[in-house]
Input
Amino acid sequence: MLGQLRKLGKQTAIYGFGNILNKMLGFILIPLYFRFIPIGDFGNLAVMEITILFLTSILHFGIFSGHQRYFFIEKEKNNYGTFLFNNYTGNVVITLILIIPFLIFSSQVSILFFENVSQTENLRIMFWIVVAEILCTLPFQILQFEEKPVRYILLNVFKLVLSFLLTIYFVKSLSLGIKGILFARLTGGATTALIMLLFVIIPRLKFKWDISLLWLSIKFGLPAIAGNIGYLIFQMNDRYMLNWLSTDIETGKYSFGFKIANFINLIFVATVGMSFMPSVFSKEKEENNSRYYRKMLTYYCFLIAFIILAFLFFYKDLLALMAKNKDYFDGFAVVPILTLSFMVMGMNYFVGIGLFLKNKMHLFLIPSLAAVVLNIIMNYFFIPIWGMMGAAYSTLISQIIYTAILTITSGKQLKVGFEWFKILMIYTLAIALFFGNQLTSSLNIFLATPLRLLLLAVFPLVLYKLNFFEKIELLRLREGIGKIFSNYRPW
Output
């Protein structure tokens, strides 16, 4: 088990680094936002960014999920070239057909979102970003599944550097504001998509039409899209409803806090899930795979809880050095709540495997509908009273309900027997240590840092004393440490 965990950890580190590079642009540009982007414009940009996420998540018609599900199967059948040709070309055609109405009615979309036509041109750039992002996804999946980490990372580095340099030029030198941010992202994404078409997609293609292979992916992934629409609305409607029920400044502050908290999701939670899902399918036919699925959730909760604690202990001190704009600084208040929500969200990769393995993707609709209805209702009442804090609490409560319902629904398809008592121990201890850290907030950084490091050390130690770790796990850990020291030669 620990060997499998080490392999998953290695994959997570490699592709996590690539994912970090792919998602890092929004974070390294934070000082630029402080200086050149007013908080209200940042709120408008946030609405566009979540719209990009929403459209890239649905306009592929489930082809990405189907490609992921049947990648290894088609490889074994020596039919992957034809499978890829039909999936990729189908993806291109479907995306272009569906994006055309958005381009035609950009003015109407601007009025719907922003109550005027001022963002029409920016929205058109945004819709082309959707196309570029969608065309990047299949090639990145291929490089991950074929374990080509160097190419995966290099392409992400290229995309990051190009987008970053162009953003600096467009925003700082040409004073294009959020239009410059969007245009730089479009250029970076489109250039990367073209390179991957030439060097990743085309060399693997077998030019043979077989629509049934495209339909195979759509048939698997489309039900998940139906379920994910509700979940995506739940994940995104906080900023839409803040924009509607509050002000663009409040939306901007919340969106900044969301972007900071989303660092945990993009860099760690989503990366672990991205690395875990291929192993779910590759171990589908192995004996005792339930233990693997069960332990992975426990390890995930332990690892992410520790990372989140470290993040929450130090993020405010580090970002406060840059956040001279008081409006941005106010957004820090929602970060702890949203990071906890992202941790719970990451559990969905693990508790939902029964629906993936049993091809019951349509059942994702059950927790999605429950979460989105609850979230909209809570936002409607909470936001007018508590503003962005109301949106944050609504997100956390809805996420807990979603994960609980998904666990029950998926458990009816596949009995795994997750270690819920251990998971409860992790959450309880992590929350207690977080509140303990609040006592250090009045101290200067030189006094607070040693105390925070001590609190972090307490986390695994207390779990050890509570018999969280199994004897075999401790034995393998000691053996691994012993090998490291036995191979070390000081002379």
